[in-house]
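Journal club side-thread
Mid-discussion, someone asked how the predicted structure for our own chain would compare to the paper's figures. Pasting it here so we can look after the session.
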Amino acid sequence: FIKRNARAGKPFFAYIPFSLVHMPTLPNPDFAGKTGNGDWADALAEMDHRTGQILDAIKEAGIEDNTLVIFCSDNGPEATDPWQGANGPWRGTYFTAMEGGIRAPFIVRWPGKVPAGRVSNEIVHIVDLFTTVARVGGAQVPKDRPIDGVDQLDFFLGKQDTSNREGFPAYVADRLSAVKWRNWKVHFIWQEGMYDTPQKLALPKVVNLFTDMKEERDVAAKTSW
């Protein structure tokens, strides 16, 4: 697909949804047992290899400098035994509004345009990809309906240090569980794990994520009025 479009000089969009590290983790037989750390690690190693194959194909096609590559996840770690993952210092799993459920890896690669090696802790939401990629491709974002995504291209290109998004609402199913703004988060419903019962809080819990990555301390409860 990549070679065919590159030869024809045609722009293309390729969406490649790896499900390798999602339950049940089933690595290709060529990777089964390769890491010695179980199916999850083998599937992770295979995903790394497959991503490399795609990047190699782009380079071999001679379009590396004219191709925007985005690598991301749609959620944090699994909650079901024995496929649980990890999300660094953050707490929680997917299907929750905890940082461990909503924070995910996000890597942008565009040689000569996106600064190499740049790391940021700014907020980018997955819905921002629609508006950003539309601009990259020269398409117009619909104006006859509300659009959730914001254009993040200048942020990705290093033309500005900050994201064009300061926060977002965190829904779990149809429940507004939390709202995040910069380094602050307000929980309305408390649920640490996917299989825990959601608890509607009598008073919202306010967390400063700079000083409390595991969301253990309610700063609102310690405020004097």
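Post-session note: Helices lie at 2-8, 38-60, 99-102, 128-136, 153-156.
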